[in-house]
Design brief:
The complex is a heterotrimer. Chain B is mostly helical. Chain B is built from 14 helices and two strands; from the N terminus they run αααααααββααααααα. Chain C contains 13 helices and 24 strands. Classes of the chains: A mainly alpha, B mainly alpha, C alpha+beta.
């Protein structure tokens, strides 16, 4: 196992290298670092040439890439083209808010979908199962902004107007040193993300639990007289969670990238918005840094997921 | 009939191997029978047929020119049967330039269903092939395919979408299909959603293959000399159909909604051609009226998002139920039920 | 300025998770601490970030402004963003000339506005002398002098600094020198008419940076690019002073009791970053924000009924416009029909623009008459083009565009089919749909094309669809150098091509008379003469139908009725922030 992990880590290094190269080239074609300076009559052609030179954008692309790579190897993520701040500082500023939102949402999603998924599978085709099916698909089929904005207008604006205890719209002034305030402001965005994400997890869990139910070892366990509950939680769930864990592994890695739409609707200072706003402004160093971190997490996350497979299903052999 | 050596109870094994009994049903024949006995699945089939009938038959009731004809003075009207006096002129109300929403749901449905089903087909096929090959063969095949998958997950597809939209500036000709002029970006949208949507499924199918290929029935089949591709597609794949179907039904909703999102990049279905996505998108600009103190039936322009949303949810639910039935039908272990 | 709030955010995760565990299926019950929330959020300003020392005023009149975009750099040399530039009215309020809510110039740090009469402008129009107030101090007590302006000029021109724009300092200005600590002399190469809105003027955020703070930084680092002051301009001059910037969340400014016009009435101005329009609306309705920006016309009817806000309409020079592709170069040419002024007129006559503004824009605005509407230079004698579909048909018939067998007009085998291109904004899409139908009714076929705005506005060099002539009719919002009438996009020399990729004349108009008039006005320092030139310009544009406004495009704001004294100006929105007050 440890040899497998070492080999995967070496592979990962090259994977990340290749991916960053592709991202650098593709990203450059997609987001023009000079975009922020176009369509402004006050910025002349000379201005643009001078800015491009100062930012090092007039050098050949391979040179720019190697310079960037060299800086990253030395642990330097560079300086923003737009704000001229250190990229690492910009990311660190957004990190607490991003992680607070994404981790709460992920925990809530996992809890809700575990309960809903197991209930649905153990009560297949019952009224409860059908209700969960309908609810998950409604949550999933509604665009994110509908769910988020509806929640704001109901619990933020409506409840306040009706004199009920209300939740913040995310646009008020609040004390960021107060954990209770944090929690209040997290409720609606977390609810939004959970409503969307729980659908997938619940469906995967339900269907694979149904699959596993008929397998030999479950029957054996049942015939040995183990209580249904024990069979379910100790044996069936473990084996049925391969798809669940696969999706979870990806979501944990991607969680660092934030959730653009939810962050935007709730004015949440997360990394998703930082990435989107800076790439729109052509802020290449910030874009590359966030992508580099996400890529690394995805690649490493996949190794972890593969190892976790072998615990969930001992028959799986990695080689 | 290697499958029979799997986990069947003794009684059924005898049925399968006894040459003297009634004509043996093939695996697929059995599956078909089981499927037809699945109430929800049959319901799903009927539901889906109704949706298709609605968007096809509906287009005889309204012309496309009518669906695309603005009438700005009557914009954003709630369904006419709620108005005073009630009429059936606009049963689902009008949109932000006064076009009839029902007619647009009908014509938009044709486009959205094509986009949804075709792009999911592409994504599911790609994901299943890549996941299956990777999980079954393992080793360096697995390494290469999975590193590629990781790359596809990690590189934001938004980049590719932006590049594609930049490349296509002013050069997307309209296509004529069945006498209708369609925006040339429809096939591009289908392709793009399909090409960037298979990665999660590939990972899941691979995990199923990693687990299933070590199971007795596969080992037995291999010992019997069954060919690799036969084991993969005939024996393991049907056993990992459950997550694929979940993926496909969720993917369908994602594809129909994605068409609306890429509209912001100038890639979606170009208006005046309707799609469920672009009807839904219009509603976004007016959603904040939800709690405005105005006459009740016009609150939140609910008809603009409710009807297309219901269509999407109904379609996805039908596909899900069909998928459920398919899963139960293809599960050989289901015989014992 | 950064605070570490990681511990509290982790705690919050735990609390939220606990709430979820307790009420996984009944999320409505989750807001446990809601009791605390029954008082209005704005009434708790003291709980707002208090990382810096307690405010000396101890007051709590906090005015909250929601901002749909975040500032990018607080150094005026490094930004061209509207949202950021407005902030200079608060903490870097040292423009020599500013503009009031009627867009009239006001002497600000300059004691009076230089003119030929008062000797401030030399007879040849090339030298302008500014006499500066001597009672203005930076917030650390250092006097603001002419040296700060010279230093700013030097920093703009220094190759070491990645400043956003040198215009017009590089091309028009020969020198900026001090005569004494409170006299600044600017010399031009040629007389330069728009000086009042571009040389140390608030109209283009040409404000001065503190020499005593930034010169040492420049000498040490060799550049101002990474100066800490750019992010945290703790030394400023103006009614409010920078207090805190939490990126992605908010920016705070604290009253400056030593402001040279007297202490401002409000105690704090708080900019909340609210990136989503609909969320901003929620904030306005919930009373979380006092001032809202860029309100969509479709929200105005609701906000009016709400009764808690005023909705000022502020002229900012922008007009939603139609441009016709006038190129004669095959590479960038549009439909040849558009070369005929009568065809252009017919296209406009076919469309009921008043109906569009009445229905889509709720009657909040109407078609503008000229590109300079709302300014002293506007020519009000111009006849508007009427809505007259029958007249349009006749014009087209007379021009030889006859209705063909398919109902579409044609001439010499060319169909009258036009590419109508604009951005993906909803109101523009709606306009397209309506116009398409109206054109169809008189036999004109059209194809609607929408590009995301960054693609739409890309230059010729970046293969932008408009700049490369991939359109017949294009719709976008444009303005002169408001509040100065100067506009360069009409010059023949600005036509984009391989030789001139950044050119801004995307309508490819090259009219010799127009060109000469535009060149002349830019060198005419005499305001009255200049107005006459502009009236001639507008006559030509109207006669030739080179440009048509679909609607005048004012900025819509919301101001809570609790806040008083707000007088927005299109060019300098927050110019009188020192007079803003808030009732409790």
């Amino acid at each position: 196992m440890s040899r497998y992990i070492i080999r995967r880590l070496i592979q990962s290094f090259f994977t990340i290298l290749v991916i960053t190269t592709v991202i650098f080239v593709v990203g450059r074609a997609a987001a023009d670092p000079m975009a922020a300076y176009t369509n402004n009559p006050r910025i002349t052609a000379e201005d643009k040439a001078r800015i491009a030179h100062n930012l090092g954008l007039d050098r050949p692309l391979p040179v720019q890439y190697l310079t960037w790579l060299g800086d990253v190897a030395r642990g330097d993520l560079g300086t923003s083209f737009v704000t001229h701040q250190k990229v690492s500082d910009m990311i660190m500023e957004r990190l607490p808010a991003t992680l607070a939102l994404m981790i709460s949402a992920l925990i809530a999603t996992v809890i809700v979908s575990l309960i809903a998924g197991v209930f649905a599978a153990t009560h297949q085709y019952s009224a409860g199962d059908n209700l969960i099916t309908a609810a998950t698909f409604i949550g999933f089929s509604m665009p994110v902004f509908f769910i988020g904005l509806s929640l704001i207008f109901i619990f933020g604006v409506g409840f306040k107007a009706w004199g009920l205890p209300y939740l913040p719209t995310g646009t008020d002034i609040w004390d960021q040193n107060d954990p209770i305030e944090w929690a209040r402001h997290l409720v609606l965005p977390v609810l939004t993300l959970t409503l969307i994400q729980a659908a997938g997890y619940t469906r995967y869990l339900r269907s694979s639990l149904l699959d596993v139910q008929h397998q030999d070892y479950i029957r054996t366990a049942k015939s040995k007289g183990l209580a249904d509950r024990a069979v379910l939680w100790k044996h069936a769930l473990k084996n049925a969670s391969l798809p669940f864990v696969t999706v979870l592994g990806l979501d944990i890695a991607l969680l660092f990238g934030g959730a653009l739409v939810t962050e935007t609707i709730f004015s949440w200072p997360g990394l998703g918005r930082l990435f989107w706003e800076q790439s729109n402004a052509g802020d290449f160093p910030v874009m590359m840094a966030i992508l580099l971190i996400v890529v690394t997490l995805v690649v490493v996350g996949q190794i972890v997921v593969d190892v976790v497979y072998t615990f969930l299903d001992p028959r799986i052999k990695l080689a | 009939m290697a499958v029979a050596t799997e986990t069947l109870s003794k009684g059924e094994e005898r049925v399968m191997f006894s040459p003297s009994t009634k004509p043996t049903l093939s695996l697929w024949g059995l599956a078909f029978r089981r499927f037809l006995r699945h109430r929800a699945a049959v319901g799903g089939i009927i539901g889906l047929a109704l949706i298709f009938a609605f968007v096809i038959v509906g287009s005889f009731a309204y012309t496309e020119a009518y669906a695309n004809k603005p009438d700005v003075v009557n914009r954003l009207q709630a369904p006419s049967w709620l108005q005073d006096p009630p009429t059936w002129e606009h049963p689902m109300g009008t949109d932000s330039v006064g076009r009839d929403v029902l007619a647009r749901i009908i014509y938009g449905g044709q486009i959205s269903l094509i986009i949804g089903f075709l792009s999911v087909l592409i994504a599911v096929t790609l994901g299943a092939i890549i996941g299956a090959v990777s999980g079954y063969y393992g080793g360096s095949v697995d390494s290469i395919l999975m590193r590629f998958t990781e790359a596809m997950i990690a590189i934001p597809s938004l980049f590719f979408l932006i590049i594609i939209s930049k490349m296509l500036i002013g050069s997307i000709p309209n296509i004529n299909l069945l006498g209708r002029s369609l925006s040339g970006s429809v096939p591009i949208v289908i392709f793009v959603i399909g090409i960037f949507g298979w990665m999660v499924e590939a990972r899941i199918v691979r995990s199923q293959f990693l687990s299933l290929k070590q199971q007795d029935f596969v080992l037995a089949a291999r010992a019997l000399g069954v060919k690799d591709h036969s084991i993969m597609w005939k024996h393991i794949l049907p056993n990992s159909i459950a997550p694929i179907i979940v993926f496909a039904s969720l993917g369908l909703a994602v594809a129909i909604l994605t068409e609306a999102y890429v509209g912001f990049l100038g890639l979606g279905v170009q208006e005046p051609t309707a799609s469920w996505g672009n009807i839904l998108n219009q509603a976004l600009s007016y959603l904040n009226r939800a709690f405005a103190p105005q006459d009740f039936i016009h609150r939140g322009v609910w008809w603009l998002w409710l009807f297309p949303s219901l269509m999407i949810i109904f379609t996805v639910l039908c596909v899900n139920f069909i998928g459920d039935g398919l899963r139960d039908a293809l599960d050989p272990r289901g015989l014992t039920k | 300025m950064k605070r570490i709030f990681a511990p509290s955010s982790i705690l919050a995760i735990l609390i939220v998770t606990a709430a979820w565990l307790a009420a996984a299926c009944a999320p409505v019950a989750a807001p446990g601490p809601a009791a605390q929330a029954t008082q209005p959020a704005v009434a708790q300003p003291t709980s707002a970030p208090a990382a810096t020392a307690a405010p000396s005023t101890g007051g709590n009149k906090v005015i909250t402004i929601s901002y749909t975009q975040e500032a990018n750099n607080l150094n005026p040399l490094y930004t061209n963003q509207w949202f950021t530039q407005n902030l200079f009215d608060l903490f870097l309020d040292n423009a020599l000339i500013t503009f009031n809510d009627k867009n009239e110039p006001l002497p600000w740090i300059a004691k009076e506005i230089p003119s030929i009469e008062n000797g401030g402008i030399s007879a040849d129009g090339k030298v302008i002398t500014f006499n500066l107030r001597d009672d203005v101090k930076w917030s650390d007590g250092t006097p603001l002098t002419a040296d700060d302006y010279v230093f700013t000029y030097e920093m703009i021109l220094s190759d070491k600094n990645t400043v956003t724009s040198r215009d017009p300092f590089e091309s028009e200005v020969a020198s900026v020198v001090t005569k004494d600590p409170h006299t600044l002399v600017v010399t031009f190469n040629e007389p330069y008419a728009p000086w009042m809105t571009s040389i140390f003027s608030r109209a283009n955020s040409s404000v001065a940076i503190p020499k005593h703070i930034l010169q040492p930084v420049f000498e040490k680092d060799g550049t101002l690019d990474n100066a800490e002051w750019n992010r945290a301009p703790t030394v400023g001059v103006g009614p409010f002073l920078f207090k805190e910037w939490e990126t992605g969340s908010h920016l705070t400014f604290q009253a400056n009791p030593d402001f040279w016009m007297g202490a401002p009435k409000a105690d704090q101005i708080f900019f909340r970053i609210v990136p989503d329009d609909a969320s901003q609306l929620a904030a306005i309705k919930a009373g979380d924000t006092d001032i809202g920006v860029f309100i969509s016309p479709s929200d105005v009817p609701d906000l009016e009924k709400l009764g808690t806000v005023d909705i000022p309409k502020v002229q900012s020079g922008y007009k939603e416009s139609w441009y016709f592709n006038m190129s004669t170069d095959p590479a960038t040419m549009g439909n040849p029909a558009l070369q005929d002024a009568n065809v252009r007129r017919a296209l406009v006559m076919a469309v009921d623009r008043n109906k569009i503004t009445q229905e889509l824009l709720y009657g909040l605005t109407k078609p503008a008459l000229t590109f300079w509407d709302g300014m002293a230079q506007a020519n009000t004698d111009i006849e508007p083009i009427p809505y007259d579909p029958e007249g349009a048909k006749k014009l087209l018939d007379d021009a030889g565009w006859k209705v063909g067998s398919d109902g579409i007009r044609e001439k010499d085998g060319v169909k009258l089919k036009l590419r109508y291109v604009t951005t993906t904004r909803e109101v523009r899409k709606n306009t397209q749909a309506i116009v398409q139908q109206e054109w169809k009714d008189i036999g004109i076929d059209s194809e609607l094309i929408n590009h995301p705005s960054d693609v739409f506005f890309a230059s010729f060099g970046d293969k932008g669809p408009i700049a490369t002539g991939q359109y017949d009719i294009a719709e976008w919002s444009n303005s002169p150098q408001f509040p100065d009438p100067n506009a360069v996009d009409w010059l023949c020399s600005e036509i984009p091509s391989d030789a001139n990729p950044p050119g801004g004349n995307w309508e490819f108009i090259c009219d010799k008379d127009l060109d000469a008039l535009f060149q002349e006005q830019a060198r005419t320092v005499d305001a009255k003469k200049r107005i006459e030139l502009f009236k001639q310009i507008q006559k030509i544009i109207a006669d030739q139908v080179y440009w048509v406004s679909i609607w005048d495009d004012p900025d819509l704001w919301t101001v809570s009725k609790k806040v008083t004294g707000v007088k927005f100006s299109g060019a300098t929105p927050f110019w009188n922030a020192y007079e803003w007050d808030k009732m409790e």
